[in-house]
Amino acid sequence: MTSTPGDGDQPPDPYGRPPGQPPEQPYGQQPGYGQPGYGDQPGSGQYGQYGGQQYGQYGAQQYGGQYGQPPYGQGYPQQDHPRATTSLVLGIVGIVLCGLAAPFAWRMGKKAVDEIDASHGQLGGRGSAKAGYILGLIGTILLGLALLVIVAAVGLGIAGVLTESSSPGSGLQG
User: What is the pLDDT of residues 7-41, one digit of tens each?
Assistant: First the structure.
């Protein structure tokens, strides 16, 4: 009897494996749960080589502490500059509520940005300080324009009163 397709025969494997064989894993056996993963050192399973629980990829040395410096490219956690957030808040207040706060935000933000740049990465918060500086600058410009408008309005009002009082027929008639 000849075999026809559909009688249970399998087509030949394009990779040369005998019929019915499972495909090979190209990278070997993959680790299962609780087994060391790729790149782990021997004996560094769930509890590490020395018996302590492992805390992330770098173990107990991830954040420096008593065991040494942090891994390359991961500096120490930065502390924000104390006046970075203050300059940001003053800048927002200077734009939205009271323009008198804007010059203080401008000055405080500029000083904080300069100190952060001079700290060589020891201080953070540059974005907040820079935003406070820019908002303070914009708020100060708006405050100056508002003062110019007020001075011009008062000046035109005084000039209008003076021209009305000096024109003939505008005085009191008795």
Answer: 556 666 676 777 777 666 666 666 555 555 555 55
Give per-residue pLDDT as tens, 76-128.
657 889 999 999 999 999 999 888 999 999 999 999 999 999 988 889 999 99
User: Do the Cβ atoms of 67 and 52 come closer than 8 Å?
Assistant: no
Angle between helices 84-96 and 126-166 (to 10 degrees): 30
pTM: 0.51
CB within 8 Å of 167: residues ≥ 6 apart: none
* Nearest by Cα to 138 from 107, 102, 172, 114: 102
- 13's tokens: 């494997």
Residues in contact with 87: Cβ distance below 8 Å, sequence separation at least 6, in sequence order: 105, 108, 109, 112, 128, 129, 132, 133, 136
Whether the CB-CB separation of 105 and 139 falls below 8 Å is answered with yes
Q: What is the DSSP letter of 100?
A: G
Question: Cα–Cα distance between 113 and 91 in angstroms, integer?
Answer: 14
Report phi then psi at 83, rounded to 5. -105, 5
